[in-house]
Amino acid sequence: MTLIFIDMDNFKYIKDSSGYRAGDQLLIEVARRLLLVAGKDIVVSRLGSDEFVLVAENLSDAAISGFQTKLLESFRAPFDIQDHRFYVTCSAGVASYPKDGGCFDELLQNADNAMYQAKKLGKGELSRFSPEMKKLAVARIQLHNRLQDTKDHDAFSLDFQPQVDCRSGRLRGAEVLLRWNDAEMGQVPPDRFIPACEETGLIAPIGRWVLTHACRDLKRLRPPPDLDFVISINVSVVQLMQHGFEQEVLDILQHENIDPRQIELEITETQLMGVFEAGSQRLRTLMDAGLKIALDDFGTGYSSLTYLRRLPLDTLKLDKEFIRNLHREQNDRHLIGSIIQIAHDIGLEVVAEGVERPEQRTILDDAGCNWLQGYMIGRPMSAAALETFLKDWRGFV
Q1: How many C-alpha atoms does 292 have within 13 Å on its Cβ side?
Q2: What pLDDT was estimated at residue 217?
Q3: Phi and psi torsions of 335, nearest 5°
Q4: Which residue of 74, 154, 243, 350 is 20 to 30 Å from 322, comparing CA positions?
Q5: How does pLDDT run across 331-344, given as a tens digit for each residue?
Q6: What is the pLDDT, as a whole number, of residue 176?
Q7: pLDDT tens across 107-139, in order?
Q8: More confident residue, 10 or 212
């Protein structure tokens, strides 16, 4: 027997923003698509909320791969519900009897662990269970407990990574990066603790702390008066979909006496899936108030041009995976050039992340990229180090 555990991505925010009736109708439409994908040989059952369980005879690796392809393809088309259009993805975990469990409950638990791993890979993915995932589940619980025990924010700090003009090296600003140095676990990577903060609900107060302290650091930096210095701050979809998020951001900027034009909010494209309409409206409100809006990690998620055109955006950030082999792969150069051209055609500036080599900069400059960020310019640094960087940086001489 093979058990497939499926969880819709971001369903809670769809329900909260569009209402229970729209959420229930969306679940019905999702179930219909799952039935079509499953066919007559796989049993489809709703476990609860936005979770579904599919049960089949033992599936071969080839059959699971084929199912994954059909599953992802079936969710590419949007769901039109009550005058709303939802772009929905789902994450899935697979466990098989007897290799991955001796009873249904154990299979279900292990398929759930595999599904969680799929979400970590970026959502909209399918993962097979492995024994290592049990250890990861225990580590996840430990991580959650340590976050809950963090009663204040003394363990958190902010780093900054500069962004500069691709051709001249003129400073644009810096991205704010949250760091956590736990007393027991040491330095915890952001890709581990940020998802845990979202799951535990701590991302909202931590997000407020980040914005407040980034504003205070910005005032202490004292960038040159002729420089339109912008700091970019990552925003979780959990924050974005909280009631009153827009006003909270504006209140913090007003209290800290920061011009909204100096702040850019970054949202990852995969996070916006499923909350496109409500999320876009909130981002539009902030853009109208003067803030810049950036789409982060472009190319790792849905990447629909229609979807991109309808978002309120100023900036497109190219994921570092596109940049890594840019100086070696001719196909990557053509792809990057096309993406940059499309971004410019719809009025967006482009930031390339992960730039480490002069050859990459040359290729990006030839392709018309606006801004660079990466080790070639500077590693993430403290606010004090960034202040020194601002004084010493002379561009590309």
Answers
A1: 26
A2: 95
A3: -65, -45
A4: 74
A5: 778 889 999 999 99
A6: 98
A7: 999 999 999 888 877 777 888 998 888 777 777
A8: 212
The three-state (H, E, C) secondary structure of the chain, written as one string: CEEEEEEECCHHHHHHHHCHHHHHHHHHHHHHHHHHHHHHHCEEEEEECCEEEEEECCCCHHHHHHHHHHHHHHCCCCEEECCEEECCCEEEEEEECCCCCCCHHHHHHHHHHHHHHHHHCCCCCEEECCCHHHHHHHHHHHHHHHHHHCCCCCCEEEEEEEEEECCCCCEEEEEEEEEEEECCCEEECHHHHHHHHHHHCCHHHHHHHHHHHHHHHHHHHCCCCCCCCEEEEECCHHHHCCCCHHHHHHHHHHHCCCCHHHEEEEEEHHHHCCCHHHHHHHHHHHHHCCCEEEEEEECCCCCCHHHHHHCCCCEEEECHHHHCCCCCCHHHHHHHHHHHHHHHHCCCEEEECCCCCHHHHHHHHHHCCCEEECCCCCCCECHHHHHHHHHHCCCCC
Query: Per-residue pLDDT tens for 361-373?
Result: 999 999 999 999 9
Mean pLDDT of 169-194: 90
The partner residues of 180 in beta bridges, in order of sequence, read 156, 188
Q: Minimal CA–CA distance to 115: which of 105, 107, 106, 125? A: 125
Question: Phi and psi at residue 75, in whole multiples of 5°?
Answer: -100, 5
Task: Supply the pLDDT for residue 218.
Answer: 94
Are 356 and 327 a contacting pair, CB within 8 Å?
no
pLDDT exceeds cutoff 90 at 18: no
- The residue assigned the tokens 């978002």 is 311
Instruction: Give the strand pairing for 230-234 and 171-182.
Output: parallel
Residues 6 or more apart whose Cβ sits within 8 Å of residue 354: 319, 320, 321, 323, 324, 373, 374
pLDDT at 257 over 80: yes
Question: Hey, which residues does 160 pair with through a beta bridge?
Answer: 176, 381
Q: pLDDT tens-digit profile of 269-294? A: 767 766 777 788 899 999 999 999 99
From the list 337, 300, 293, 331, the residue with the least C-alpha distance to 314 is: 293
